[in-house]
Amino acid sequence: MPDIIQLLPDHVANQIAAGEVVQRPASVVKELMENAIDAEATSIKLIVREAGKTLIQVIDNGKGMSQTDARLSFERHATSKIKKAEDLFNLHTKGFRGEALASIAAIAHVELRTKQEDQQLGSCLKIEGSTLISQENISTPTGTSVAVKNLFYNIPARRNFLKSNTIETRHIVNEFQRVALAHPNIAFSFYHNENEVYNLVTGNLRQRIVAILGKKTNEKLVPIHEITDLVEIKGFVTKPEFAKRKRDEQFFFVNDRFIKNSYLNHAVSSAFENLLSGGHFPTYFLYLTVPTNSIDINIHPTKTEIKFDDEKTLYAILRSAVKHSLGQYNVGPILDFDRDATLDTPYNLKDKSLPNPRVTVNQDFNPFKSEEQKSIQFPYHREKNREWESLYNGLDSTGIDFKSETVDPGLFSEEKENSKTYQVHKKYIVSSIKSGIVYINQQLAHQRILYEEFLSNITVKDAMSQQLLFPLELSFNKTDIVLIKEIKTELESIGFLFGEISNDTLVVMGMPVNIIESQIPSIIEHLLEDIKNDIPNTSFSQVDIMAKSLSKSLAIKTGTKLDLKEQEDIVNKLFLCKQPDSSPFGKRTFITVNIDEIDKKFNN
Q: Are 250 and 284 in contact (CB under 8 A)?
């Protein structure tokens, strides 16, 4: 029987490795930026075109590489960080496996330009699909520039699985933010399709967070700092009143490396217990420094998961540190829940004695004076105010009955008997029909009504808008502002009016008539999250997602008590919809029970 096991060719092995390392353009951004950081760069520039499908270029001013190192960097498992197996458990750098450049070069066109400081000329390598095309000496600045073009050009199946440009760009922005937040001592810049997205100067951690998420973030931050023998924790959490319905602003860094860890996330969430309303999540930027031999970062290809030696102790320390900071800055609850802080004595008046209040009394006041004496004291005499009585001259005393009108109690009972709808458990509306009874889910039915109204307003006619007495200024990060500008026209067609839109703020001048001002921040926040998570390629589908998101945010919720008029209004509007039997998300809005089914229940 012939042998069937054989070694894979290098170019096939590289493509298999690329499947682990390069999942999408954002993976390339992460690997190249981490290599630049390992090269001790103080300034890193990221250039992206067409969401990374056409070009991803990272330029740094780091140490650079020699001609030999430049060529070896594209070989599999070629690394400068690992010399023996024990080094895997004592890592201080980002990249260490030596698979990144080899995997990227296997599925793209790569051009590398690099020069060391003590060299007069640098090197330029061009590689396509793991094949070296050329290597020559060139004049180039100190540092390294890696340009990755035509990603997945030789694996069309992988390229077809990429999402829309907007989604891929969002993933690139997320990776850029994670790297930039981990290294505030490095200057970063980011350009997409020749447009500047970020230009971050060096600074401290708070300055970097504010530069990325907007200037309004500064007032929301609560600092945290705790040092123990096991771990040093520093960073910030946001105040509970600024909690969001999304988790995309939760950052854990271990030894300056971004990680995902649901166990530690639960520790932070438990520290906010009883401080957050349902469905809201805290925002945090937490940096943990632990001994390198107490963690294993080689358990996942993307190196975003870490295994700790003593997770339980780390959990307790992290939870305690967050609770301590919330209490220290008067964010957490106190023992005296009835205490009103506004009634506390100001610090500068704490040791001062206050004068007794003075009471003044009118000595000439006499409540037993006669009516005539009183009338003389007041400037308005009774006679001067009798002109209004002339309005009734000539009227028959029987013409007007000034007695209070008696209400016949039978009117209400009759209305009760003839009522067509009833609310059950503040969740369902029950109404009788010819064949039996219909049960309507009030929340899902209202979603269908609002959904079709918003679709009509966006695509056919403009909705009414109500002007705000005072313009409302909202803070967003730069990527959200870009998305708001893209959907601005659609938002205005449903009733929103906007003023100035800057890099991190949005001024709302008006809103649709069916919402209240306090709902505006959460509505726009939910809308942006829905669009970012599932943005399609066609503008019509984007309008559909907007209508669904707004209908979900504004629909009456289960547990809302409705009066008779509101119940009938939902029933009437629901059955005027084009698809009354399902909500915008495919759930049934009502069910019917006919008389025969009811009779069977009693006959059994």
A: yes
